[in-house]
Amino acid sequence: MTAQQPVKFYQTGTFTVGNRLLAEDDRNVQANMRRTNSLNSGHRACQGCGEALGARYAIDAAMQATNNQVMAVNATGCLEVFSTPYPETSWQIPWLHSLFGNAAAVASGVAAGLRARGKKDVRVIAQGGDGGTTDIGFGCLSGMFERNDDVLYICYDNEAYMNTGVQRSSATPPAARTATTMAVGPHPGNVFGTGKNLPLIAMAHHIPYVATASVANLRDLEAKVIRAMSMRGARYIHIHVPCPLGWGSAPADTIKVARMAVESGLFPLFEAEHGEVTSRYTLRRPVPVTDYLKLQKRFAHLFGKTPDTETLTSIQAMADRNIRVFGLQGQEAV
Amino acid sequence: MLKQTEGSHAVAEAIALCRPEVICAYPITPQTHIVEGLGEMVKSGELKDCEFINVESEFAALSVAIGSSAAGARSYTATASQGILFMAEAVYNAAGLGLPIVMTIGNRAIGAPINIWNDHSDSMSMRDAGWIQLYAETNQEAVDLHIQAFRLAEELSCPVMVCVDGFILTHAYERIDIPTQEQVDAYLPKFEPVQILDCDEPVSIGAMVGPEAFFEVRYLQHHKQLRALELIPQLAAEFKQQFGRDSGGLVRTYQCEDADTIIVALGSINGTVKDAVDEARANGQRAGVLTICSFRPFPLVEVRAALEKAKRVVVLEKTLAVGLGGVVSDGVRKSLSGIALKGYTVIAGLGGRSITKRSLLNLLKQADRDELEPLSFLDLNWDVVNREIERGKQQRRTGPIAENILRDLHTNAAARTS
Predict the structure, then answer these.
(1) How many CA atoms lie within 13 A of A49 on its CB side?
(2) If A131 and its partner were Cys, which of A16, A82, A169, B25 is the partner (CB 3.0–4.6 Å)?
(3) What SS3 class is residue B271?
(4) C-beta atoms of A109 and B68 within 8 A
(5) Percentage of chain A exceeding pLDDT 70
(6) Could you tell me if B101 lies within 8 Å of chain A, comparing CB atoms?
(7) Residue B415 has what pLDDT?
(8) Could you give the domains of chain B?
(9) Rounded to an integer, what distance in angstroms lies between the CA atom of residue A119 and that of residue A181?
C-alpha cells in the first residue's frame, strides 16, 4: 500500500495515476493551479536532475500542507549551488544556507527561534544531499532526531558527492563506479558490505515519522511530505533521486531509472512511525536488478562481453533481501 | 545588587538579564557553569520566553545559534578550548552571514597535550574570523561586557565573543554588582534584526558568491569592525552613565603617563600586573600597564597613543604563535609604526602556568635594563626542555614528548626528596 491511494487507477505501463481521473481535491500538488513553485524554474540544475524534481515536489507539497508557512535550511551541495547563483535565486520561500554539515542543527535553531518568538505556525524543513546527510551532517542530524526537534529533514539521495565531481559517499551502492571508487582492479567500483541505511537509523531514534520516497512515484512523495507536515517533532524523508551526470544515465531516463530502483527492490518505499513500519509499497512484478543497473554507466563494468555474474548475483541478493525484510512482495493487480 | 557569587554564575545572570530567546549548550570545561546556570533559570521559569537546547557538539551549538539568530531570536552560546576549534567552521560562517550572536569563551588552552587550564590560545585562534573579541579583566567586567556585547552585536549585526579567563575568572567567587532588569532593559533595546527569515517577505540567505562580489562582502566585515572602534567607546560611556562604573572600552591605561616601561596585557592577568607595577614604582621604576579590552577590532590608534611616549613595551601574551612568537605583539608593533621604542614579547601562563607578581617584578627589572630577548618565555623550565632536546639527539624513538616531560619532572622531584 502506498501513502495516498486507497484506490488505484494505473495508467498502462507507468503504474501512476492520471489526475484527470481524480476529484480536484485528490489531484497532486503540482497539478494544482495554486502550486507555489517554491523552487522556481530557471535554476542551474543539469538536465534530468532528480534532486531538482524531488525538491520542487517536496517543498510545494509542504507549502500546500501548511498554508505556505514553510522555511528551509539547505546543506551545501548541488541543490544549494544550482538554486542560488545570486543575484538570482529560485527559492520563493525563506531559505538559509549555512554549511555542509550543519543543516539539521541550523534548522533546529530556526525552529527554536520561531518558537521563542511565538511563531508556532511557521514550519521548518532542512534539506541536503546524501553526503550532507549520511556523512558530514550525520552528527547534527542524529542530534536533531534525538531531541525530537520540530523539523522535517529531507535527504535527496543521489548516492555520491555529485557537486564535487562524483565521489563516493556512505550512500554509494556496492559496485558503483565513482571518482573515488574507480572501475579498475579485481573488484571494480565501490566495495560490498559498506554504507549505511539512514532511514533505518532514523527509525532507531523512534522519531514520529520516517519515510522513503522516489521521484518515480511523485504522488506518493507528495503524500508523504503532506503526512510529515501533519505531525510535529523530528521527521525524516529519504528521497531517491537519480543523477544523470554521476550515474551515467540518460537525462530522459531519470524517472525510469528511479522506477527500476524501486521495482527491483533495491530502493524500498515505506513509512514508519515511532520506529515501526506502518506502510510499504509492494512490488507487483519485481524486475531483475539488471533492468536498473544496465541503464547506468556507473555499473557498465558489470556487463560487457563477460558479465560479472558474481557481482550481479550479489546485487540481486540485496534486492531479494529487501523484498523479504521489508515485506515488499505484493500481489499481481487484478 | 551586590552579591558574593561565582564568575560563571554572574555571567549567567547577566545573560538572563539580556532576555535571550535561544541558548544552546554543550559542556566543556571551564564554560559549563555558565550554561548550567542558564539552563536552570529557563527550566525553573525564571527566564521566560527562552529556548534552552542541549546539543550534541559545539559545532551544533553554534549552528543552532546561527539558525535561531536568522529566525530573529536573540541567541547565545558559550564554549572554550577544543570547543571553539570544533565549531571553527561555524564561527567563520556566523560572521560571514552577519548574525549578531553573543558567545562567551571561558579561555582555556588547546591540546595536545590535553589541558583544561587557562590561556588565550582558543579565542586567539579565531581572531580573524570576523567576530568582535572583548577580553574581561574581572568578573564584574565579564558581567558588564556581556550586556554591552548584545548591544554592540545587534547594532552592527556582527557576532561578539566575550573572553573570560577560565577558572581564574569563571570559577572565582567574588563580590559582583549584578544590575537590575530595569537597568538592562533601559540599556539594551529589543532585537531588531537587519535580516530575517520571514514567510511574508521571503529572502535567500547564504548564497554562493563568486569572485565578482566575495571581496566586497569580506571587506564589509572589516568595515563593521572599523565601526566598532567608534561604537565600543560610545557604548562603554553610555554604560558608565547608566550603571555608574567603567567597564569595557577599547583599552585602559594604568600609570602610563610617565612610564618608561609599559606592559601590554589582556584579561585577568592585568590585576597582578597592576600590583607588580605599583611595587615597581615603589622601588623607583617608572612602569605602567596598557590593558587591551577590544582585541578585535584592534585599537591601533589608542594603543599607539598609550605607548608612544614610553621607552619600551613588553607585550605579555597568553598565546604562543608557534613558529613566530606573539599574536598581540603583531598588533602592538603595527600600532607603533615609525616609533623607535624597544619591543619585547613575553609568552606567559600557557596551560595555566601561574604568572606571579615576583616573576613580573623580575621581568620589569630585566626590561628596564633592556636585558630581555625580543621573544622570551616567562618561567619556562629550561632544564626540562633541554633534557628533552638532548634525548632527541641521543636516540630516534624518544616516545611521546608530553609523557617524557612528566616522567622527567616526576623523577627529578623524587630524586630531590630522597
Answers:
(1) 20
(2) A169
(3) helix
(4) yes
(5) 93
(6) no
(7) 82
(8) 2-243 (3.40.50.970), 251-377 (3.40.50.920), 391-417 (no CATH)
(9) 46
User: How far is the C-alpha of A177 from the C-alpha of B333, rounded, in Å?
Assistant: 55
Q: Which pLDDT value is given to residue A24?
A: 76
Q: From CA A266, how far away is CA A176, in angstroms rounded?
A: 13
Quote the cell numbers at residue A125.
Answer: 524543513
pLDDT tens digit sequence for B6-59: 999 999 999 999 999 999 999 999 999 999 999 999 999 999 999 999 999 999
Q: What ipTM did this prediction achieve?
A: 0.95
Residue A34, exposed/middle/buried by CB under 10 A (0-12, 13-18, 19+)?
Answer: exposed
b/e per residue A40-68 (b: at least 16 CB within 10 A): eeebebbebbbbbbbbbbbbbbbbbbbeb
Residue A19 CA to its chain's centroid (Å): 23
Confidence of residue A6 (pLDDT cuts 50, 70, 90): low
Q: Torsion-angle region of residue A168: left (phi > 0), alpha (psi -120 to 50) or beta?
A: beta
Please answer yes or no on whether B199 and A110 come within 8 Å at the CB atom.
no
Average pLDDT, chain A: 93
Element (H, E) at B23: strand B22-25
Residue B177 cell numbers, joined: 554588582
Q: Does residue A331 sit within a domain? A: no
Q: Residue A331 pLDDT more than 70?
A: no
Strands A95-97 and A151-157: unpaired
Which residues 81-140 of A have a C-beta within 8 angstroms of B? Answer: 81, 84-86, 89, 91-99, 101-102, 105-117, 119, 122, 139-140
Q: How many domains does chain A have?
A: 1
A-chain CB neighbours of B213 within 8 Å are 86
User: For residue B288, what are the contacts with CB-CB under 8 A and spacing of at least 6?
Assistant: B253, B254, B255, B256, B257, B259, B261, B262, B263, B277, B310
For Cα atoms A316, A303, A170, give the angle at the middle one, nearest 5 degrees. Answer: 55
- In this structure, is residue A242 part of a structural domain? yes
Q: Which residues of B256-270 are buried (b: 16+ CB within 10 A; e: fewer)?
A: beebbbbbbbbbbbb
Residue B250 grid cell: 577599547
* Domain boundaries, position A55: 19-325
CA distance A197 to A268: 11
Q: Is residue A330 part of a domain?
A: no
- Separation of alpha carbons A274 and A148, rounded Å: 11
